[in-house]
């Protein structure tokens, strides 16, 4: 048995969990998420005890890995429909900025043209500071979607090590390098 997979997932008040043959639906105050369940696993929903248990049919390595994965995905879904997920980005550079235009995020990143990024359904973008350093907060109920959208925005202009310009996660530390001028003077 997977150590993570054995832990029960507690269901907070206001969250409804429905299990069908191969799909589990989790509904909460922030929205509704569905997760496919592999046929090797069994799900037990205890509505009185307010918890969900994931059971595996074998102790083979591939079963253990799948057991832990599905349990973590379900726990993330429960957390998402109650509290949601968010990631912060910083845009650093002279002339770099971010604006919202309808359903698009328009970024000026030092290119000859603005970069338009369509915001997917289920994601909300909040701009806290428009210019240097710009701050974006990406929020949603699906952890995978929030993380992927944030990574896609960061990949448009990753931070560079000499001046630190680019888009970085708010908690990311960029290792700075000394330029040619510093190396030549020593």
UniProtKB/TrEMBL annotation:
The keyword Ribonucleoprotein applies. Gene3D superfamilies: Ribosomal protein L6, alpha-beta domain. The keyword rRNA-binding applies. GO terms for biological process: cytoplasmic translation. GO terms for molecular function: rRNA binding; structural constituent of ribosome. Residues 11-84, 92-169 form the Large ribosomal subunit protein uL6 alpha-beta domain. Keywords: Ribonucleoprotein, Ribosomal protein, RNA-binding, rRNA-binding. GO terms for cellular component: cytosolic large ribosomal subunit. Belongs to the universal ribosomal protein uL6 family. HAMAP family: Ribosomal_uL6_B. This is Large ribosomal subunit protein uL6 alpha-beta domain-containing protein. It comes from marine sediment metagenome.
């Amino acid at each position: 048995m997977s150590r993570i997979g054995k832990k029960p997932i507690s269901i907070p008040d206001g969250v409804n969990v429905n299990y069908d043959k191969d799909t589990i639906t989790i509904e909460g105050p922030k929205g509704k998420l569905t997760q496919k369940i592999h046929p090797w696993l069994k799900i037990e929903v205890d509505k009185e005890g307010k918890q969900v248990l994931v059971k595996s049919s074998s102790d083979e390595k591939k079963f253990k890995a799948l057991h832990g994965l599905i349990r973590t995905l379900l726990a993330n879904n429960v957390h998402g429909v109650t509290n949601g997920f968010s990631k912060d980005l910083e845009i650093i550079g002279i002339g770099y900025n971010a604006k919202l235009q309808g359903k698009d995020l328009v970024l000026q990143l030092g290119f000859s043209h603005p970069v338009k990024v369509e915001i997917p359904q289920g994601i909300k973008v909040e701009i806290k500071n428009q210019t240097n350093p710009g701050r974006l907060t990406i929020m949603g109920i699906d952890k995978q979607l929030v993380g992927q959208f944030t990574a896609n925005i960061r990949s448009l202009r990753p931070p560079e090590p000499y001046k630190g310009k680019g888009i970085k996660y708010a908690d990311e530390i960029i290792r700075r390098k000394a330029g040619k001028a510093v190396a030549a003077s020593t």
